[in-house]
Design goal:
The protein has helices spanning 22-30, 32-38, 126-144; strands at residues 10-18, 46-52, 59-66, 69-81, 85-92, 96-109, 112-121. By secondary structure, it is α+β, with helices and mostly antiparallel strands. The protein has a 7-stranded antiparallel β-sheet with strand order 1-7-6-5-4-3-2, with helices on one face. Strand 5 and strand 6 (96-109) form a beta hairpin. The longest helix has 19 residues, at 126-144. The radius of gyration is 16 Å and the shape is globular. The chain starts with 9 loop residues before the first strand and ends with a helix.
């Protein structure tokens, strides 16, 4: 009898409260100049490329040089409803050829907005991915304050 291995994904969920309008937070994900300052950017990395086609079916691509290696983050937009919903696929080919789906919902709140992010991850990657997204959202928060 042959057995098949099935990889089941978990849904990671992260919430972050911003002191910026939903429009400013939403637009920061789709503007190449702004996104290059915070999205997948590391303190010691050098941003080489940020290309974003902000339409459903449009592709996005971010390349950052880290310790001499060019790291590609890439995907395709699956849903864009400004300023409340953003969906996209996400892959880092150097780490894993598979792509996963990320969904973002933004709700207005008094004095800002609440961003809720969902991301399909392998169970063993869940904690590391939560930490990664929180760092990214904190970087976005810092970017929006300037």
């Amino acid at each position: 009898m042959q057995r098949e291995a099935h990889n089941t994904m978990d849904m990671l969920e992260v919430e972050y409260q911003f002191r910026a309008t939903p429009e400013r937070v939403f637009d920061a994900w789709l503007d190449p100049k702004t996104a290059g300052e915070w999205l997948f950017a590391t303190p010691k990395g050098e941003m080489l490329e940020v290309s974003i086609d902000p339409v459903k079916g449009g592709k996005w691509r971010i390349v950052e040089r880290r310790r001499g290696e060019d790291i590609l983050h890439t995907g395709e937009y699956t849903r864009i409803e400004r300023p409340i919903i953003l969906g996209f696929t996400f892959a880092v080919p150097q780490q894993d050829e598979r792509s996963v789906h990320v969904s973002i919902e933004i709700e207005p709140t008094p004095g800002g907005c609440l961003l809720m992010l969902g991301h399909d991850v392998m169970p063993e990657d869940k904690e590391r991915s939560i930490e990664g997204w929180l760092k990214i959202l904190k970087a976005l928060d810092r970017e929006l304050r300037y």
